[in-house]
Write a structure and sequence with these properties.
- The structure is a homodimer.
- Chain A is globular.
- In chain A, helix 6 packs parallel to helix 7 and helix 13 crosses helix 14.
- In chain A, 36% of the residues lie in helices and 13% in strands.
- About 3% of the residues of chain A have low confidence.
- Chain A is α/β, with parallel strands linked by helices.
Chain lengths: 456, 456
């Protein structure tokens, strides 16, 4: 069987996500993000399209680098307002059976003790369908919200994250043995205290001495996602991530990043092929190529270049509004953040100008959409997968929920005809759907396995 | 119209809540607490019974005072394992239209910036049905989970809570003006930056400088619950709480506490009658008194005295296992915690012995159940309300969900016949259901109103 293409919807609990200005389109319903029915309907549509999951981004703070304030972000709704993503999961889980949930949570501002319980709770309520996109945040405006002046340094955040992972692994994998819960069988106890273990950890930043509050959930550790393409971010991904979210601008760069992370994963003793790679894709599809091109032009009228500049300025840490149109942009902060923006950050050189950036903006972002008939789109996606070694795509939203419905109704059947897409879901947890039956828990080669009580 | 009786179901995202051992009953389904369908079914039943809300308790940490460890709590499942309560709300909201949600969240371990967003998100998703039971926690075992050695002092926690409230009020009420969101009308912005205001606060413990991340939700500030009956807790309730949860052991004590908190609220410039008082009630009802008595005996066979002692020891901060059966219990730590346990804590004197405590335990707790036919139970509840000035009850769970179904099917119709219970829900948010149409937001006399931008 040829390699199957995996799909996540890429979304966020807010009005404007990546394709800035699309919310102004007359048919767009993104402004219904506060409406629980909007999300439940979306979940049903994604499950109808056999999507592996919905990947929910998140940000704390406001993009306030452009023109020195957050005004453009507020006017264009560039990820502000933004609501908590975790609270969407139970509502979407209530109306689906198979859809996975990859949720971005910033570990910098969550204590491991309470965060571990939150994820265990979701793993229980979703019957093993929860994933966690590990981020450490990068905005000074978020740091100020938390009482600090500035965000701590990029690489320091990853060191802190390694420590954090060690603790949550112990809570998830090492506090309750598999046979700890007796559930009152034979008039016995609910749980056997001898099979519960206090997690004691004292590191540079964290100190914990506690039992995990939740009993073992189907997956214990949520499926781990990572989205940072910086040097340090890749090293972190190679060690911890099961799924990596990439946003490279060319197939060549994508293939190189995929190969690099896989090589590092193998070097860390992991099965490199099992580190699944998802590339960002923005799709505009029609029943014919002409219909797709017309749709692109229609959408494009809403594209917000100002929104794109506000977003990109924050990602770069450079106020693009402070440059004349053709002035070279010199002060490039590299390795500045751990979001998927890294991919372009690293490539931004002094030959760039604001005009060049603005010219690249289509549908409110610098990522170029894949446009065409269902057959053209399907073939383009398959070709990217084949030529780069990725496993699938995170589909960016344009006009919602129309773009998802179009993909499900038009592209999915062609992918299926091509033998590249499942005709039904596998049973089991999200991790089993990704790796096969019997794989609900992390494999022995993953660092989390080392803290299991049974294996001590 | 005679005073209407209000009802909350009192529950927790765990196996064993207050009536210890009930989970062992053959018909009890509490062990399904990890099953999302269990909670959705419960929500539907409560809405069928026109309950005002479900009040969800929470605890961080393990009750490990009794016999010097947590083993009894683990065996009897005394609030361990315990999952996050907030994540139940979206699932229950998905299948209901009117049921309110009062959720316990410990402010000690949540940053105000991220917590405020979490509650705003829930207020949006529930269309204005969220409430917050403000607690500060009291367990050293939770403090150790968070990297501290001991819980900070009781009154210090309330001072910290006052500061915390000031910040979240500013985020909820003072960051976005009512007319800030233009939603793109007339091709304009999503929101007007001139109508957003950064919250700048620097106190003893907290420092914040940020915009609130969420746009105004139906209620802005969630309906505020408080459950501490200590001297300092009452002062806090009189200042902040809209609903107070009491667990007094006698009608005399209950009437005195109600009068005291109302007097303090009036002294703080608030409308005392609008501070709504809910008393804990445990009901066992049958179609006849005999059926109820038989049911009590049936349930009682599962009562866990050990579970009750483990729970009570933690509440007192005294290891009751360290006393001989008839030895007077002398070292009473008063004002020790801010939970509803305060009511008994303050009254525990040296004439108490372990035997006396154990003799009082019925259905796994020291609270005496109200037992009888539907008419007897209804009349007893009405009489308590009339004689003490309370507004309603938080109904403790026994055998689940049978006890809720019994109450809905048997007691609710009698309360309605007596003219003491609504025959349908009012429209609007939870706060409007409690106080009337047009009252979605906190009134001008509440301290939160002082930080509104419009009123500055």
């Amino acid at each position: 069987m040829p390699k199957q293409l995996r799909l996540n919807a890429f979304d966020m609990n807010c009005v404007g996500h990546i394709q800035h200005g699309m919310w102004r389109h007359p048919r767009d319903q993104s402004r219904r993000y506060t409406d629980i029915d909007y999300w439940m309907d979306l979940a049903r549509t994604l499950e109808r399209g056999l999507f592996d999951g919905i990947f929910l981004a998140d940000i704390l703070g406001v993009y306030d680098v452009y023109r020195g304030d957050g005004d453009t972000s507020i006017r264009e709704s560039v990820q502000i307002p933004v609501n908590d993503p975790l609270l969407l999961v139970p509502a979407m889980a209530a109306v689906t059976k198979h859809l996975g949930f990859g949720v971005t949570c910033n570990l910098t501002y969550e204590a491991p003790y309470t965060f571990a319980r939150r994820m265990s709770t979701l793993d229980h309520l979703t019957r093993g369908r929860i994933g966690w996109n590990i981020v450490t945040g990068y905005l000074d405006s978020a740091a100020r919200g938390m009482g600090d002046q500035k965000m701590i340094g990029h690489d320091d955040r990853y060191d802190m994250a390694d420590e954090y992972m060690e603790i949550v692994y112990r809570l998830w994998e090492g506090s309750w043995q598999d046979d700890a819960v007796r559930n009152g069988r034979d008039a016995g106890p609910y749980a056997d205290p001898a099979k519960l273990h206090r997690v004691r950890y004292e590191g540079t930043r964290y100190k914990v001495d506690a039992l995990h509050l939740s009993e073992p959930s189907p997956q214990r550790t949520p499926v781990l996602y990572q989205a940072g393409a910086s040097t340090r971010g890749r090293r972190f991904a190679a060690k911890h991530a099961e799924c990596v979210f990439l946003a490279e601008q060319s197939k060549r760069a994508l293939a190189a990043t995929v190969a690099d992370i896989r090589a590092q994963a193998a070097g860390a003793g992991r099965d490199a092929a099992e580190v699944l790679m998802f590339q960002l894709a923005t799709v505009v599809v029609g029943r014919t190529e002409k219909e797709a091109r017309d749709k692109l032009e229609d959408y494009r009228r809403c594209s917000s270049v100002e929104g794109a500049l506000a977003h990109f300025s924050a990602s770069l840490g450079i106020d693009l509004g402070g440059y004349a149109l053709d002035e070279p942009i010199r002060h490039v902060k590299t390795d500045a953040n751990n979001s998927f923006m890294d991919a372009i950050t690293r490539r931004t050189e002094s030959t760039w100008t604001r005009r060049r950036i603005m010219d690249q903006v289509v549908l409110g972002s610098r990522w170029q959409p894949t446009v065409g008939s269902a057959e053209q789109v399907a073939d383009a996606l398959i070709e990217i997968m084949e030529s780069t070694g990725i496993d699938g795509f995170n589909l960016s939203r344009t006009v919602m929920p129309e773009c998802v419905e179009d993909f499900v109704d038009l592209v999915v059947p062609v992918l299926q005809e091509r033998g590249r897409y499942k005709s039904g879901y596998e049973t089991g947890t999200l991790r089993e759907k990704l790796y096969g039956a019997g794989r609900a828990r992390l494999p022995a080669c993953h660092p989390a396995a080392a803290v299991r009580v049974e294996s001590r």
